[in-house]
Structure formats: C-alpha cells, structure tokens
User: Fold this.
Amino acid sequence: MRHLAIGFVFCFVVSCLMGLPAAARAEVSFVSVGVGDDATASNEAKDKKAARKKAKKKASDEAAKEEKEKERKDEKKADDKACDKQAEAAKDATKEGDAKKDAEKKADEKKDAAAKTQPAKPAAPKPPVHEVEAGPFQVTVELKGVFEAREMADVSIEAKQWSQFSVLKAVEHGKQVKQGDLLIAFDPEKIDRAIDELRRQVKLSDIAMRNLKEQLDAQEKLVPMDLQAIDRRQRIAKEDYDQAMKVDVPLVKESAAFSLKSSKESLAYAKEELEQLEKMYKADDLTDETEEIILRRARFQVAMGEFSVKLAERRFEESMKFSLPRQLESLEDSMTRTTLSNEKSKILLPLTLTKSKLEWEKAQIEREDLDKRLKELLADRRLMTVKSPADGIVYYGECVKGRWTGTTSDTSFRPEATVPTKKVIMTVLKTRPLIIRSAVAENEIRQVREGLKGCVKPTAFPDVRFEAVVAEVAAVPDAGNQFPVKLMVTGGVTVNVMPGMTCSTKLVAHEREDALTIPPTALGTDPLDETKHFVHLVDKDGKSEKHPVKIGERTPKAIETLEGLSAGDKVLLTCPNDAGKKKAEQKPESKAEQKPEEQKPEEKK
Assistant:
C-alpha cells in the first residue's frame, strides 16, 4: 500500500509540472524515486512537496505578470482605435459641412433665379367696411327670479310667557286648508300645571300682602309713640344723672365723712367715760365685782370704738378712691349708652316704617306681576290650538324674498317636537296671483325701472311664456351688491307654476324700429375726452376719414348712433386707432430689448 501511495504522489507532481511554463519546469528537477525504505521515502516526499509549492508560487507570479502585460497591450490598442475613430469622425464632419455649404449656396441660387422669374406681388387688400342700415334695435336685461305668492298669511306662536310648545299633531306640508281649519295642536299638560302653580302663588301673595298691611298699619301708629317714649326715657335719664351728680354724690361724700367723724366721736366718748370710771373707782380704793364688770365693759367699748374708727377710716378711704369714682364712671357710661340707644332708635324707627312701606309697595307690584303673568299664561293656553288665518295652501316655514326657510314635517312638526315662538313656522298662501322676486346687477341697474314690461319663462316649463311688469326697484343694494327687484305677473298663468319655483325674465329696456347701428369694433374714442366718439367714414374712392358721432345705447354686438351717420354710409369695420394700438401691443421686442439668454444662441453661432 505504501508503494502505491508514493507512486500516486509522484504521478501528481509530474502532472503539475507539466502544467507549468517551460522556464519553471527547467528550474525544477526531480530525482527518481524508487521503492526503498521508509525513511528515504519520507524525505523524498517532503522535498517533493516543497518543490511543488515553490513551483506553484513561481508559476502564479509569472501568470499574473503575463496577464498585466496583456491588459496593457489591450488598452493601448483600444486607445489607438478611439483616436482613429475621432480622426475619421472629424473628417466626416468636415465633409458634411462642406456639403451643407454647397447645398445652401445652390438653394440661394435657385431662390434668386425663381425670384427673377416670378411676377410682382399684388396690392394689399382693402380694409373691410360696414354699411350703416336702419333696422330694429333692442337692449334687453335678463333677470333670474323666483315666484312668490302675492297673498300670504304668516303663522307664528306669539306667546308671552310659555315657550314649551310640544306638537301633538300638525297639518301636512302643501295641504289645502280653509280659514279656521286646525293647523297645529300642542300638548297642554305642562302649561296647565304651570297655571295651577301660578294661581297658588297668587293666593300666597294675597296672604303675605295682608300680613304686611297689618304690620304697616301697626307701625304707623306705634312709631310716633315709640319716638315719644324715647324722648321720655332720655329726659328721665338726664334727670337721674343730674340728680346723682348734684345731690347723691356730694351726699355720699358727706355721709362717708360723717360716718368717720361719728366713729371718732364715739371712741372719744368711750375713752372719756372709761377715764371717769377709773378715777371714781380709784378714789374709793375699793372695787367690787360690779365695778370690775363696768370697767371691763368700758374698756371693751373703747377698744370697739378704736376698731370702729379704724374701720371707718378704711371705708372712707376706699369710698373716696374706688367706690365713688366707679359709681360716677358707671353712671356716665349708662347715661352715654342710653343717649346713643335713644338716638339710634329715633333713626331706625322711621327707617323701619319706610322699609315696611316699600315692602308693601313691592308686594303690590309682585301681585300685579303675578296677575299679569297669569293673564298672559291663560292667553298662551289658548295658543295650544293654531287655526288657519285664511284659505290657501300650507307651506312649512317663512317666505323670505321668494325663498322658503321651512323644513319637512319629519323634523320640525313631528309629535313631541318643540316649536319655537315669535318666529314664522308656517305660511298659508294663495297660488294666484303671483309676483317675482329678482335682483339686478350694478352695471344693469340703470336699464331697469318701474313699469318696464318683460317676458317670463318658467324653468319647469321652458316653452311657456307670460308677461310681467316691474313694480318696484330697490334704491339700495343688498349684501351681495345686487339691487332687489319686484315684478308683478300680469299675464294669465295656464301652467302649474307654484310659489318657490324659479324663472327667468327678459326685460326690453330700450327699443327702436329704425335705429342706425355700427359694430363695437368700428367705434373709436378720443383719448383726451372719453365722452367724444368717432368712426372712420369711407367715401366713394375708398378713402377713410375720421368722423365724429353721437352714440346712444349699446349691446355686445351693436352700438346705436344718434347723430353723425345716415343710412347707406360706410365706415371701417375696425377703427384704425384700435388697430394701431393692437399692432403696437403685438409688436415683437427689438434685439436691443431681448434678454441676454435669447441672444446667446446667435452669439454662439
């Protein structure tokens, strides 16, 4: 097996060397390997392996070098080919330029030859003219409008107190009714409860007013008596105060002094009596038990007198320093309080009487207001059934300048729906006679005037016509700068045209049977005076001359001339003045006025 492996390796190396270049194969030499021992075979295998790696590396380096050299040669060949192509393209362009110049030269020669052989150009055509003819001329104004009934009766809930008008049932929109027929019936339950509650308030108000009246009568009698009692109390308090200050206070002082003096006198009397007894009993040199008792009592009387004097002195001092000043202070405070209370009562008593009078007046006003509310609520109760004010057809909502503001019965007049007050909710109208509400723009207001007749075409019936006359034109425009116009339908209306449907009215504002008219393009205006106009009158020789004219009314297609032209006159169809202006407006810019961006292509050429 080992011999087979060595042989296989040798064959692989030989095959690799055969794939290398000749130079690489020349540098690599191999020693024939035979079958030997194991050590020799191993060394030979290592050498062969190293040789193979070296041969592979050298072969790859030479292959890369050859590849780079090949790429460099290919690039050089490509550059040479591109240069050749550019040179050939330049030669071709030069040849094409020469051919183009030759072709242009030949074309110019042909044009010159053709110009020499062609006949002369014909003369410029004459400008178109218009021949003035007498014929009918009309100025009309077309107005869009809406039909409106001339006789309408608005239905509204003019309630003064109640606002909750809940629908029970209502007549259908578009129904024919007669005067007095029921239109709407409202639920009266809530308003009946409100009326009962208001009546109870009226009764309570009567009781409260009777009470206020009794109190007021009593106060009117008692207040003067109370004021007299206040004056009397004030007088008595003043007398008591004066009596106390003039009589009682000096007497209190005198009484305190006299009490002190009395105590002192009693003490002196007791001492004198004791001295007399002692002298008397001392002279006898004998004292019995009775005498001893008398002396003891006399001595006790002296001691008691001394104590009484001491107590009287204390009381006198306390009275002069504390009791009497406090009594005086209390007396003055009482007098001040009594005075202030009396003055307050003298102020408040009249105010209380005035307040009672005002409360009585207020109660009277509230009572009158309750009576008024009850009266108005009873009147609102009668509005719970609304009847038709006239014969006609019922329309929901209000007609405002021919437009209806109503809604369907499914929303506004369904059961339990609340209907607003002081607002037109229905309209009963007669479909004949009719009027038309329209409006005219500011630029056409001068054409529309009262008494102007027109032809009406209903939108729903485009083949029907009837007459109408302008009855009123507003002098002041509305918010959209439109002037409201009112027209009376005078002709008989044979189709079913109803109020609220639309129409168009054609008014003939100006009409002449033999008017002389010219196209608007033939008229020129003096640039210095826009009130002066002219045309270019053409004579028999075809020459035109500026000729003044006086114009009247105009339409987009024709202008009426009043003076300056006669039937048969010819005028230029386009005024030269206007044509010159148009040419001047259409004249291209000169090269000097061209923008730099427009000149650059020519400069490059």
The radius of gyration is 70 Å.
